[in-house]
Amino acid sequence: MAKTTLVSLADSLGVSRQTVSNVINAPHRVKPETRLRVQNAIMESGYRPSAAARQLRTRRSMNLGIRMMPVVDGINGSILDRFLHALTEAAQQEGYRLTLFCADSDADEIRQYEDLLKVADLDGFVLTGTHYGDDRTAWLLENEVPFAAFGRPWSSVEDPFESRHPWVDVDGGAGTEQATRVLIDQGHTAVGFLGWPEGSGAGDDRRTGWSRAMASAGLPTANLDIRADDGVPAGAQGAERLVGKGATAVVCASDSLALGAAAKMRQLLPSHGSPAVIGFDDTPVAAAVGLSSVAQPTEDAARHLISVLAHQLAEGDEETAPERHLILPPSLIQRTPYSFSSM
């Protein structure tokens, strides 16, 4: 028989997790009829709060944990730098501090959760880099540890807005759709997409936006979709293949790919002038060389995540709770390229 958790109990009763938590820890906040129904269900199920959850409720340290993700290159790592800076500012305004830690894998990150809950008395965690089959969210939910994620839950069958945990994400598909339409409006009828290997939630979302824009314009996408690992060299190689298939413009899943693609297209299509390439993340490098790019509102995402966690940890009123699931719109920053060296 499956173990009863706060989440499963709340789901079976059709109430929120916060309501069950309030019945246990602050019963005066719950209407009498709801309180009695929840209390009866708790007795019948034999539910007992986990040690980690009990510790978090009774000894708040005003400290939140977040994993420092490895930097792939000196370009795209800046997006997480901006996010971390904004997260730190937002946490301080709410009276919290951040504890940074490193992990080699998701499994290692879970081990770090266990250790940090035991020795550092953290109140909760902020997750980044969500993906399909994310074991981290499953562990935190099972152990009733408060957390919020920068990135939606990726699943082929479940609606992310039905998720049991709070998250904030950026509408990457809307960003690449806008970028593709701009290139089409400039007269390009063969706009390629250069993205990450299939199975990347964020990467697949960005590809979908490109595909929507092409379909809306009645343009073919066959042979104009290249998948590659992230990086400038991969961008150059991908652009060479796309140009060979007739592409005159490219939308990329990252600025690293876009920088490589722009340099290669300047070499292969010198008569076209400035390469028609748009990246994603609007990194400082993209701004420095005049590369058009889709900008993510990382500061807004960070502020909302802290707001959600602070409200949850303070066991605030449900009527004033921030949105638990939020998708933010990106913005396209258009520039005129300065110069790119040949690859």
Automatic annotation (TrEMBL):
Keyword Transcription: yes
Keywords: DNA-binding, Transcription, Transcription regulation
CDD domains: HTH_LacI
SMART domains tied to this protein: HTH_LACI
Entries under PROSITE patterns matching the protein: HTH_LACI_2
Keyword Transcription carried by entry: yes
Domain of life: Bacteria
Domain (HTH lacI-type): residue spans on this chain: 4-58
InterPro entries: HTH_LacI (IPR000843), LacI/GalR-like_sensor (IPR046335), Lambda_DNA-bd_dom_sf (IPR010982), Peripla_BP_I (IPR028082)
Record-linked Pfam families: LacI (PF00356), Peripla_BP_3 (PF13377)
GO molecular function annotation: DNA-binding transcription factor activity; transcription cis-regulatory region binding
Gene3D superfamilies: 3.40.50.2300, lambda repressor-like DNA-binding domains (1.10.260.40)
Protein name: DNA-binding LacI/PurR family transcriptional regulator
Organism: Arthrobacter pigmenti
